[in-house]
Design a protein that fits this description.
With 199 residues, the protein is mainly alpha-helical. The protein has helices at residues 34-67, 70-88, 133-138, 143-154, 156-164, 173-198; strands spanning 13-14, 21-22, 107-111, 128-132. It has 6 helices and 4 strands; from the N terminus they run ββααββαααα. 17% of the residues are buried.
Length: 199
């Protein structure tokens, strides 16, 4: 009587591309067909190209920041604090006139003490408040109206302190980098809070 021959079963694997089961013909084979191998190779090449592009963009950003002038750093830092002031004051009208918060025009972050005259307080949030574009651009902040409204908003003591800050400060690139990082994080947190309260 003959002993039945046992057939060796080929283990089944799942194709990493199309997820169908197949019998691998070679060790470490992960795809079932040439088509799936081509698709997988393309995806891997695209992923590698994206990673390389991301690395290159990061390197370009670092190079640009190294040659960035202090005035450019100051502009970027000012833009952040002005946006924070606008978000903080989102339910307020213009600090310099009677326009309500519902006005549909462009809002600015207006400095009470200009950053040219009082560089020591150019990033201080007591010094920056929401203003309509007409007052901020065409009336140089409309300071005559700005001052009494600011006193009513933050108090005489803080306004007196702002008025006393006449020193000129020269800030370093390291200061701007740190300021932008810290205040940028604060801005993102405030934006999230505002978005969640709207939704």
């Amino acid at each position: 009587m003959q002993t039945p021959v046992r057939m060796k079963l080929t283990p089944q694997a799942k194709c990493s591309e199309c997820r169908t089961k197949f019998a691998p013909r070679r060790p470490l084979q992960t795809v079932c067909s040439l088509d799936c191998a081509i698709k997988q190779a393309r995806k891997m090449a695209e992923k590698k190209a994206r990673a390389l592009a991301k690395t290159e963009r990061a390197a370009i950003k670092v190079r640009k920041e190294k040659i960035k002038k202090p005035a450019k750093w100051a502009d970027e830092c000012r833009a952040i604090v002005q946006k924070i002031a606008r978000l903080r004051d989102r339910s307020d009208g213009c600090i310099s006139c009677d326009l309500p918060a519902t006005w549909g025009g462009q809002w600015h972050g207006s400095h009470f003490r200009s950053h040219g005259a009082a560089s020591a307080v150019q990033f201080n949030l007591w010094n920056i408040h929401k203003s309509c574009s007409a007052c901020n651009l065409h009336k140089s902040g409309n300071i005559i109206e700005y001052r009494p409204r600011l006193i009513a908003k933050i108090g005489q003591e803080k306004v007196d302190w702002l008025m006393a800050q006449n020193q000129t400060v020269k800030l370093t690139t390291e200061y701007y980098v740190r300021f932008k990082k810290v205040m940028g994080k604060r801005l993102r947190m405030l934006e999230k809070r505002v978005d969640s309260s709207i939704n």
